[in-house]
Amino acid sequence: MNRATLIRGIQLIVTLTLASFAYVLYSEIHDKQASLTAAFAHVRPGWLLVGAVLALQEGVFGGLRIWSLGRVLWPELRLRTAVTSEFVLMFCAGVTPGQAGAAPSQAAVLVHGGMRLVDVATAELLTASCTITFFLLSALVIFALQQGGMLVVQAGPQIEWLLIFTVAMFGSALVALIAAAAYPPLLKGIVRALSVPLGKLLRAALLGARRVPRLRARAEAALAAPGATTARLLLSVDEFHQGFRIYMRRGKRAYAAALLLTFGFFCSRFAVAYFILLGLGIPTSPSTFVAVGPPIVQVVLIQTLLNFALYMTPTPGASGVAELGSNALMSPWVHGAFVVPYVVLWRVLTLFLCMFVGGVYVFRYLGTDVLEERVKQTEAEKRALAEAARAGRAPLDGEDAADRQRGVG
Question: In 10 A of CB 303, how many CB atoms?
Fold first, then answer.
C-alpha cells in the first residue's frame, strides 16, 4: 500500500467519524429543539481554555510516560519524538475501530526515531500495564462506591455489568502480561499455537500479493522461507524477556514515574468536563445525588465510568456511543438547552483537539515523504536532460528519466 492510498484511507475514516458525530448532533437538535443562543449566553471562555489545556496535556504527559520508559532501553530517545508519538497515537486511536491503530502508529514513530522494534514493543507493553492498572483500580473503586451507596448513576444494572466486565477484562490482561513477561515459554507456546492458523492466512495473502508486480519479489522471498516469521517472533520473545529483566534491575523509578503520569493525565482529561460546565455557566452541583465528595470529584468519577464504555466501543472514536452515553451519565448536570453545546465542546476538547494535533504530525510526515520523492524524481529528470544536452543528444519522446540516464551513461 503506497502512502497516497494510506492518506485516502485515513481521510475516509475521519470523514465517517465526523459524519456520525454530526448525525448524533443533528438528532439532538431536531428532537429537543435546543436553543444554542440561550446556552451560549453566559459562556466563559477562560474556563474553556483551561479545559483545552487539560485536554492537550494528555499528549504531553503521555509522551513523557513513553519517554521515561523508552529511555531505560534506549537512552538516546528524544522527548520530542516521544511526545509526537503520543499525539499520533491519539489521532490513530480516534480514527480506527476499537482504537486498534493506536499502538502500531506509536511504534512506527518510535522506530522511525531510531528505537529497535523489540525495545518499542517492551516499552509499549509496560505502558499498557500502566493503563491497565489505572483502569483496574478505578473500576474497583467505582464498584465499591456503588455497592456502598456512595455512587448513584443512571442505568444501574447495566453499569454493574460494565464494571464487572471491565474488572474481568483488565484483570485478565494484567495477569497475562505479567505471566508472559516472567515466563517466556508461555508466550512462546502461544506464538507456536497461533502460527499454524495464522501461517495459512499469511501464505494465502502472500500468494495473492505475488500477482502484484510491485510486491512479487517480497512475496516470493517470504514464501521461500515459510518459518521465518515464527522464528523472528520466538527470538523477539527472548529479547522481550531480557528487556523486562533490565526494567527489574534499573527501570523501577521509570515505571513508578510512568504510573504517576498515567493517573495524572487520565484524571486531568476527565476533569475537562468539569471546566466545560464552568465555561457554559452550568451549576457544578448535580441536581440529584451522584457521589460523595466535591463536584469535581463527582464529575471525574462519572467520566471514568464513561471511559470504560468508550474503550469497549468498536466504532472509530466511539462515535455514537460517546454522545449518547455522555447525555445519560451527565444528565444530573447537563439538560435542556445545554445538552448539545456541552456534547460539542466535550467531544471537541477531549477527542478532536488532540486528534487534530496528531493529524498534523501524521499528514505532515506522509505528505513530506511523498513530496520529497517527487522532488527527487524531478531533479533526476532535470539532471538527465542536462547531461543529454551536454552530450549533444536530444532525448527521445516517451523516454523516462531512468532510460535517459542509462543512455547518456
Answer: 23
Mean pLDDT value of segment 23-40: 60
DSSP letters, 355-370, are HHHHHHHHHHHHHHHH
User: Span 133-159, mean pLDDT?
Assistant: 83
Q: Which of 185, 219, 182, 190 is nearest to 202 (CA)?
A: 219
Phi (first) and psi of residue 291, to 5 degrees: -160, 170
Q: What is the pLDDT of residue 258?
A: 95
Instruction: Identify whether the C-beta of residue 71 lies closer than 8 Å to the C-beta of residue 77.
Output: yes
In contact, 47 and 296? CB cutoff 8 Å: no
3-state secondary structure of 158: helix
User: Could you tell me the sign of the dihedral formed by the alpha carbons of 334, 336, 338, 340, in that order?
Assistant: positive
Whether the CA torsion 259, 261, 262, 267 is positive or negative: it is positive
C-alpha 361/C-alpha 351 separation (Å) is: 16
Distance CA 121, CA 389 (A): 53
CA-based Rg of the chain, rounded to a whole angstrom?
26
pTM summary value: 0.74
Averaged pLDDT, 348-377: 69
What are the strands, taking DSSP E only, across 266-374? none
Q: What residues contact 348, with CB distance under 8 A and at least 6 apart?
A: none
CA 8 to chain centre: 19
For residue 104, count other CB atoms closer than 10 A to its CB: 12
